[in-house]
Amino acid sequence: MNEIDQSAKKNIRVRTGVAIGLVALLIPGIVFGGWVLFGIVAVSLGIAIFEIMRSPGKKIHWTAWVVAYLFGFLLTFWPLIRTNAGAAYIAHQHGQPAPGFVLEESFVGPAIPFIVIGVALFLFFMIAVLDKDLTFRDIAYLFGITMLVGFAFQAGLFCRYAPEVFYAADATYSIGGKVGQELVDSSAFRYGLGGTLFVFCVLSSMLNDTFAFFGGMLFGKHKMNPRVSPKKTWEGFAFGVGGATAINLAIAFALAATGTPILPILDMSHWYLIVILSILLPFFGTLGDLVFSLAKRGENLKDFGKLIPGHGGILDRVDSHLFSFLGTMLLIALFTGGWLLW
Description:
Elements: H1 6-32, H2 34-54, H3 62-93, H4 114-130, H5 136-168, H6 180-185, H7 187-190, H8 196-219, E1 223-225, E2 229-233, H9 234-257, H10 271-298, H11 314-337
Antiparallel strand pairs: 1-2
Helix pairs in contact: 1-2, 2-3, 2-5, 3-4, 3-5, 4-5, 5-8, 5-11, 8-9, 8-10, 8-11, 9-10, 10-11
């Protein structure tokens, strides 16, 4: 067993404090959802895109900043835009009044705006051609990482609102005798079960990170890939995946057994879906951490930002969570829609 030095002990205290602070900031969004969560997501996304645009370490023309912000926000909130604009257009075509604004119900699955992606790609490379300081590599990096982050933030909103969509269409489970939309509208659901999937994803990536940190610190001997992440070891990876998977399974099966599954499709009769999601979630979190580390190494960065002293910026703290959300959204789409995801 490795010895724990003073710097490691200090790092533990800092990591614990940062984790508690981030959870405290997220609680209002998790509990209340709605515009509270949308506000938290919008501010976090704005900071994340700022960190992305600063990461190449060179002056970037303001037009690229505008394109990046529009691209990121459109990707994240596209389900909301598509649902409401589409409903208003259909109502107009039939000479009917515009329907009421739809918020949570917009996030029913992955929404990929191919036109937005195509236009953003065209604009980014047009800017690169006209800006003498931007290289092909710079613009490809900015486009790719902005698309990844925007889509991952959309996945986070999906994970928060998917239970409302799924339970509203289901008549199997009830709380206090309420089912379907009546159940979704109840306080017990809105302030409890409605946020379970989101919490499950966040908790899984936090547990994976925690187990991996202590496993690597105490038993780490074999480096995974020093070029990407110098401190990560295979021992830490095994502890992280193993520990997080065990707790994921315990939580998901406990909720399913008590009649309040995370989603109606994650019940005891679909136990294999619970197993698949519980096992893959820690892998998603680890991949997110490594992918963003790879991006930082490519740009010669230690951290994406300095928002959190000693712990970098928004992207340095949410990298594993973003991939957990993204992987979960895609898995649920696969579980419900089969291979014909389109």
